[in-house]
Amino acid sequence: EVQYNFSALNEKLFVVVGASHRLVNIDTKGTLMLEPRNDNTSSLFTQVEYKFSSDFKTIGAVRWDRSSLHESEFSPKIAFVYNLNPAHSIRVTYNQAFQAPNYSEQYLYVKSPPTIPPFTTSTVYQGNQDLITEKITGYEVGYKGVYFDNLFLTLDVYYNQLKDFITDLGPTGGSIFENGIRYSVWSYGNAGKVNEYGFEVSSNYYLNENFTLDANYSYFEFDVVEKGENDYLLPNSPKFK
Questions:
Q1: Which residue in 105, 122, 113 sits closest to 32, CA to CA?
Q2: Is the pTM of this model over 0.70?
C-alpha cells in the first residue's frame, strides 16, 4: 500500500490519495476446497477535507476496489461537521460500502459421509461462485460534546439500507450421484433487503487523573423489506446493548 497527503489553500484543504494491491494464495489440500486459489485485489482511494471556516468543514472520499473474486465496486462517502462551539460539534454522514463473499461461501466443497442405512444418500456442501457482494447504504447523524471539563459525551443515530445478503448454507434442490450415493446439494445464495436503524450513546467521565468512568448504551431495530420464500433473516446484533 502507498499513500500520499498534502495540504493547500492556507491549510483549508487536506487531501489523501493512495493505492493498494494484495495477493492471496490458499491451498486446503482438498479438505475444504477442490483446488488451490491464487487471487489478487487492488484499490484506489482518495479523501478530501475542506474547511469552509473554523466551525464548518466537509469530508468527501471515494474508493474503487477490483478483485479476481468479484465485480469492481465504488464506495463513496461524504460528511459535514459543524462546531457549535469549541466543546460541541454535530456530524452528518452519507456512505456506501460492500462486503465480499469469503472463500468458504464461494469455493467450499465438503461431502458428508452417509450415516443412515442403507447408506445411499448424503449431503454435499459447496460454495457458490456466482455470489455477488453484499451492499449497504448508510445515513448517520452524530454529536460530540464536553461538559464541565470532565465529561465527554457522544450520540450517534443511524439508518442503513442493506441488500443482497449472503445466506447460510441451505438446500438448493439439486443433487449429485457418485459411487452409488446420491448427495443432496447445499449451498449459499444472495437474498433479501433490510432496513436497520438505531442509536448509540457513550460517555467518559474523568473522576481524577487516575480514574475514568465509562458507560455506553445502544439500541438496534430492523425491518425486512424483501426476502426469499424460505429465508429467515435475523441480525447478528442484539436489540439492546
A1: 105
A2: yes
